[in-house]
Amino acid sequence: MLFPTTIAGSLPKPEWLAEPNTLWAPWKSQGDELARAKRDATLLALKLQEDAGIDLVTEGEQARQHFVHGFLERVEGIDFAHKVEMGIRKDRYKAMVPQVVAPLQLKGRVHATEARVARTHTTRKLKFTLPGPMTIIDTIADQYYGDRIKMAFAFAELLNAEAKALQADGVDVIQFDEPAFNVYMDEVRDWGIKALERAAEGLTCETAVHICYGYGIKANTDWKKTLGGEWRQYEETFPVIDKSTIQQVAIECRNSKVPIELLALLPGKIVQAGVIDVVSDTVETAEDVVSVIEAVAKFVPKSNIIATTNCGMAPMRRDIAEAKLMALGAGARLARQRLG
């Protein structure tokens, strides 16, 4: 089937689970009640995607407060009690982050519960997202390793262990989220790709990396205004990624200033093309989705295109996110009729 659909990873959480329309949303309950609420929200996320015609579903990241810190909570050697303020993505914005204070080690499994719930309750292909090592070290303070690269590879080993376990749980695609890849261009080339490959080492399921210009939050939209008429950062990273062992690349294409022709620098990859804008509340039409797929198809073989969202939808209003899901499914169906 041409143009299978997926989402970047996250969906908004129901208001009975967490505070709506915000990142780092506080949970509404705790203990066993919170565990049940997370499970129910995961089932709801799956149902919404299936109803919209999404082919490669995710658990919507419903059990995580944040895409990075949801992983860090299950890692020993991290002090969450004494957070410090740190600049994120080259000081694009500030955040209160935990600190690495001792050798890193997993406290057993990280995402077993939600992965198994999702696998049990859908027959569709299942994608699971993990934060990439470069993005993790850009979202946590180091008081132990004293070396960004050393700490990144320490996290890569932990990610690899969890990724292999997720594969054993029945996950079909493991996607590493690396928004830091459009910020630290030299480091991506020098060691970022190697750390990413370490995180994916030994996996036999499909692997993907999601790189983008971030959620639709003010800090990101303000930053994008400083980038000029064309966002050409990927011109440096795409050739490096194309030589890597990672099989798929997820990239924003809808209402993006990334020149579409840069996708030609990924001839060896499946491209998850973002056809749904997560910054605007305007709901796309099926025609909008088709137009982006048509543009991408000029530079990527049709058989290598997956239609997706530009980024996660965690901070969005639920009604808008759900309408955008329906547009994604409808647009892909229309594209198959016209371009198939």
Structure characterization notes:
With 340 residues, the chain is of the alpha/beta class. It has a single domain (31-339), classed as TIM Barrel (Alpha-Beta Barrel). It is built from ten helices and ten strands. The chain has helices at residues 31-52, 69-72, 112-121, 133-137, 148-168, 185-199, 218-224, 234-242, 286-297, 318-339, and strands at 56-57, 75-88, 93-106, 125-131, 141-142, 173-177, 206-210, 248-252, 270-276, 305-309. The strands form two sheets. Strands 1-4-6-7-8-9-10 form a seven-stranded parallel β-sheet. Helix 6 (185-199) runs parallel beside helix 8. The chain is globular. The chain starts with 30 loop residues before the first helix and ends with a helix. The model has no long low-confidence stretch (mean pLDDT 93).
Summarize the structure.
With 340 residues, this protein is α/β, with parallel strands linked by helices. The protein contains ten helices and ten strands. The chain has one domain: TIM Barrel (Alpha-Beta Barrel), CATH 3.20.20.
